[in-house]
Amino acid sequence: IHERLVGSEMCIRDSLRASSYGDGDSRPTATTAAAAVPYTLSYQYRYIMIPDVTGDLCSVRYIDVDATPTNKREDGVVVTPLVLFLGTGQTVDSFAQHVHSISSQRRLIIIELRGQGKTQLDAQYCSMNQYVVDIKLIFEALRVDSVHLCGFSFGGRVGLAFASLHPAIVEKLSITAVPLTRPSLGKLILDSCCDSLQSGHLRECAWSLVLNGYSEDYLNKHGSRMEGIVNALVANNNAQSMYNLIRLSKVDDSADEFSSIQCCRRLNSSFSIGSTHSPQRMQVIAGTRDRIAGWDPVRELSRRVDQSLFVSIDSGHLSPFEAPTLLRSELLRFIG
After folding, report:
1. Which of 138, 137, 134, 181 minimizes the C-alpha distance to 158?
2. Which residues lie across from 62 on neighbouring strands?
3. Verdict on whether the full-model pTM lies above 0.70
4. Are 213 and 89 spatial neighbours (Cβ–Cβ below 8 Å)?
5. S-S: 155 plus which of 7, 30, 105, 151, CB 3.0-4.6 Å?
6. Range from 36-50, 97-111, 178-192, 200-214 carrying the lowest mean pLDDT
């Protein structure tokens, strides 16, 4: 029943205007011959069924794209897929600009987890433990037993938690904008978002996430796009689901089983040391001007995991959209 395909839609994106967040420095220009490729994307939404906490079967929306040359998939060689987990308020389409470039190198799976996009799993049951359970069921339904895992912001925290409990499934882990402990400014930003959401003011929260997510330079250069990004966030989310995800992002108790500190400890005991995989299995990416996660706290997380690779990008919190080409290049170099 898990493998049941309950529907599909064809998604054609001629531009990213409807996507949450932005398109950064990858906007095509007259001097780039292949510029049209990332902006004329066609991919199919897919749905699988997994049981919710209540036992009811619910659909999970995802995409699964493999545009690698045929000769890379000959002779029965299975190339480990890259699975991407999204940040708060994001949908599959938020990462549309990355799909072509990544899927031409490696099979790419992007999943809308509980509380995201069109996935029907009840957001009131959001917890890190439940996300780990959900992901295990999703991977079983997709018949995926080995992955490279990439997570941004909230998706990075989920990826960190999953890898710390299921290290045998994760060959390499890349997380972006995930702090060891959140800085005071980041806590205030998330507190303000939760306050807005509890009052039912989704649009206020969306503006806060956007204005605090990008760097000042980016906002000065692309300010005219921000209202459209906010509109997309509001259209693709509801206040309660957003609140549940941000509430989890605020968990900063070092004793909590799923705090970044505890996840890093588990990774060091089962992920890095004595592994049969590549010795450098974790990449941590930080934006130098990240107000939500901070640069130092993200670097400190990297230091807590043996042999992790730390990458610094000149951007705010939303580096996949502010500096998409650079981040994508670092990610693909890391996974090989």
Report:
1. 134
2. 46, 111
3. yes
4. no
5. 151
6. 36-50
CA distances to 88, 190, 264 from 193, rounded to whole Å, are 12, 5, 27
How far is the C-alpha of 231 from the C-alpha of 261, rounded, in Å? Answer: 35
Question: How confident is the prediction for the chain on average, in pLDDT?
Answer: 86
- Over the stretch 293-335, which tens digit does the pLDDT of each residue have? 999 999 999 999 988 999 999 999 999 999 999 999 999 999 9
Q: Which of 27-31, 179-183, 227-231 has the lowest mean pLDDT?
A: 27-31
Mean pLDDT within 247-263: 87
Residue with tokens 């882990």: 173
